[in-house]
Every structure is written in C-alpha cells, then in structure tokens.
Predict the structure.
Amino acid sequence: MKLTLPASILALLSSQVFTYDRADDRPNLVFVFPDQMRSSLQGFLGEEPVITPNIDRFANEGLVLTQAVSNAPVSSPYRAMLLTGMYAISNGVVTNCTNKAGEYGIELKENARCWSDILHEKGYNLGYIGKWHLDAPHEPYIPCSNNTGDIKWNEWTPPDRRHGFDYWYSYGTYDQHLKPMYWSTNAPRDSFRYVNQWGPEHEADMAIRYIRNEQGKLRDKKKPFALVVSMNPPHMPYEQVPEKYVRMYDSKGAEIEAMFHHPAVADTSNRWGKYYRKNIKNQLAMVTGVDEQFGRILEELRKAGIDKNTIVVFTSDHGDCLGKHGMISKSNPYEESMHVPFIIRWPGTIEPGRDSLLFSVPDIYPTLLGLMGFEHDIPYTVEGTNFKKLFTGEKDINRPTSQLYFITDGQLFSPPAGVKGDILTTSERGVRTNRYTLCIRRGPDNNKTTYLWDRWIDPMQLHNISNTNAGIVKELVAKELLPWLKKTGDGWLE
Ligand code: CA
C-alpha cells in the first residue's frame, strides 16, 4: 500500500530532518580561512579584477579590518599563533612543520592552551575541516605526494593533539587540490582517504553536513559549536582549479593583461614575470571558487536559522607575491605576503563597517573569547589583545601603533631561543605601522640588511629608503620593534 501524506506534513517532516534546537543561546563560531589569500584578492576593495560576490556581500554585513596582517606570513607559524594567541617565538612554531623542523621539536605544543581547548571545556562541540599543518612528519612517513622529497610535509594528527576538536576531517599539508586527502575523526594514521573533488568544494560540503548535523551524529545538538574550515586554495599549484571558475575570467583578459604591467611585476622575460603571467588568472579563479564555497557555508547558516547567533570570520594565513617583487610566494614583508583579509560578522552585536586597526594574528584568540563571553578564561600566556570593545562599537580604545613582522626562512630555520641547533639561514624581524614597513634581514653570515618602505608614498614597496632615512629606522627600532621583541622574549637584536 502506498502511503500518501499531505504536502504540509511532508514539509514538516523534511524540516525536522535537521534540528537546530539548543539548550543555551551562546553563539556558534564558524572560522573560514583559505591558504595564501592576500588582502587585495577581495573584490570589494577594487584592487585586483577578482570576482568575489559572497565576500563582497559578507563585507557589507560585517566588520572589515582593513589592516590585518599575518605577523609570521607562512603556514604553520600563522596556525600556531591563531590557536595559541602567542607570537611565533613564544609558541615555538617559528617555521613550517616539516620533518626537518620536527628534529627541533617545532610543532604545536601538546600543552599549549588553545582557544579550542577552552571552548571544549565550556561545553562546545568543535569541528576542524581541512589543512592543519601543525604536526611534524615522522618516520615511517605517510606515503603521499607531499612526502616524496627530502623535506616531508604531511602528517596525521593523533586525537590527543587536536586541542579540543572532537570532529576531525583534516590533513597536515597536501597540495593536490583536485584529489585531496583527509583523515576523519576516528581514522588511524594509516587510514586516510582520497576524494575526487576540488578541496574547497568538498570541505564546504563537509561543513554543510556539520552545520546540518546529519542524522544527529556529527555533534551534540544541544551544544553550541565552533567550526574551522581551512581551505588550501588559492595556494599553489594554481592550475588545479575547476575550469568553470577559470572561464569566468575569459571576459577579463584586458584587466589581467594590465596587471602584467604592474611595476612590481618583473619583466616578462624574467622568470618571476613569467611565473606571474602563467598563474595569475588561475589564482583569481581559485579565489572565486573559494568565494563560492564560502557563500554556500553562509547560505547553510541562514537556512538553518542560526546565522544571527553565529560569529563568522573570514581571513587567511598569509598572502603571496606570485612573482611580484621577485618573490614567488610569502615569507617576506611585502603587502602581498603579509596583508590579509579579516572580516567578522555577528549580526546585532558586531558593528558592520570598516576599521584600520593594526590587528595581529594573536589578537584573534582573546578577541573571539571576549566576544563569546569567556574573557575571564583567557590564559596569561596569550600575548594578543582582546579588541571586543572595538568590535562591538566602542571606537575610542587604545590602539597599537605597529604590528610585529617575524620570519625564518621557509623550510629551514633559526632555532628559537633555548633550542640547541644550527643557525641555518636568513631570518627577519620588523614592524609594520600605518605608514611604514621596516624589515631587518640577517643572513647566514650574520650581516644585517635594513629595508624601509613608506607605503603612504610608495604603496607598492618599490623603493627601499632605509639609507636616506636612518632617523626613521632608528625611531622605529627603538619605539616599535624593540618593545615587540621584549614583549615576546626574542633576543634577536641583542
Ligand atoms: Ca599557508
């Protein structure tokens, strides 16, 4: 016998597939951060011919911090700062987590007190989807493409190193965007899976499933949740992007051609110029893809009826130069590398608008906990500042006058203070103010080179004026850089 139900009852039943009832009204958190998305890749800024309708709309609904930076613009250091609220020298993750760094114990400390640990203790469910990159690979190495060279990148994260994230769909570092790999919550180390789907699209699917809490199995529906979605694109390899997003730029040929003549782009006969020409369209397409997937997550929050009670953040771990300034990626003090998006939305609580606060990565932790009502639970180890007051409309606050810049070279590193090891390569310290970027670079021979850019008159950072402005350098070192180094216990200049 076929049972036929009236449409109204069917609708009622289908609406009950996903239930969002909750025991308390504490806010959820959804934190989305693609990898390697420089600030200028936000369409609403009008700086690059990039198509980002969802980010543009989100920017109108939220607070846009127009001067947010990645203080140590490379993957693992950003991620450790984000989770610990400590600067790189303090949390120990001074460079990327690889097998080489692992020999010096450079990975997220098990005893670090992360914001996710606190939310877990406060009764939140926590989900992590996408790239983690905070564990150093060890033997026998995970057999995958990012572990075939001398430097190994990818590693599983054991449950006791997940810092409160009880739902897990993640990997360490894996750069095959069209066939990404993941470990799920209960998967042992040798049990990862490959997926034939573009990473951000698949991760948005998984985020949507988490928000829907399909079959009530992904989280406790009575608890609030915090979900991190860490997408890999627009990270290289840039050609690994669905064609549909590339086609959207076919009509933008002239605008893209004009970008080839940007003064920071090297001559096209130069390898950096060639690199830029080869990759820029695909990178723009990747951002459009990320935008679309971010839009799907936002739409799911709306459909679930929880968008008003969910704090949503969109940011990135760092940018990249893509051949500008003779640099192919990040780990440098150019705006393309350091300057990142930061947009936060919480309807009714966070004032929409724009603010030029000199916001730093360690500020994210105390500010989020502050907003969520846990400011008394922020541990003293946190070095960032709680900007809750500013976010909720109080503009008259003490504002930082600079942001710290810190780098050790990509895969190699100078060991942090107290760690025994070789001084292997260049390292840099500096500050970024509203006007200036200062960078002091120390090479393997210990020689120092100083860079100073006046971004008010040289926004593209084409002219190093340190030689003719020794007074400004001296003042920035004394009033900005040294206090930062002191605050973070960094003896680099001594
Ligand atoms: Ca990265």
Notes: Residues 271-304 form the longest helix (34 residues). Residues 35-36, 75, 317-318 surround calcium ion (CB under 6 Å). The two ends are 85 Å apart (CA to CA). The longest strand covers residues 125-131.
